[in-house]
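Design a sequence for this backbone.
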């Protein structure tokens, strides 16, 4: 039962939901991209990403000094059940739309 509670607690924060919305549409994102899109400091973003990882939603990999996150490919049955619900409902929120636009602008200006 604790695992179920941890999964739901991981989704109770708007910042974590915004991160999930971004990662459900992107293969992978660097912490620096998430910081820029959410306009939040590295410590806040890293803490929220860590909570999502601990709850089983995300995996990470180090590239130099940065950590890149993606939705885990080995999700539990509970995660797999909730994933389409998150994808459908988060994608249509105003916050997710604005975050996608910020990410697109960031990619245009910094990444050829």
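Sequence:
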């Amino acid at each position: 039962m604790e695992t179920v509670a941890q999964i739901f607690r991981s989704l109770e924060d708007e910042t974590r939901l915004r991160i999930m919305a971004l990662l459900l549409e992107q293969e992978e994102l660097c912490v620096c991209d998430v910081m820029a899109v959410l306009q939040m400091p590295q410590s806040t973003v890293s803490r929220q990403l860590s909570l999502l990882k601990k709850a089983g939603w995300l995996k990470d990999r180090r590239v130099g000094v940065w950590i890149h996150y993606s939705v885990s490919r080995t999700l539990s049955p509970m995660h797999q059940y909730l994933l389409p619900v998150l994808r459908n409902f988060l994608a249509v929120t105003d916050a997710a739309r604005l975050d996608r636009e910020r990410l697109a602008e960031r990619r245009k200006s910094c990444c050829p």
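Helices lie at 2-9, 14-25, 31-38, 42-54, 77-90, 94-110.
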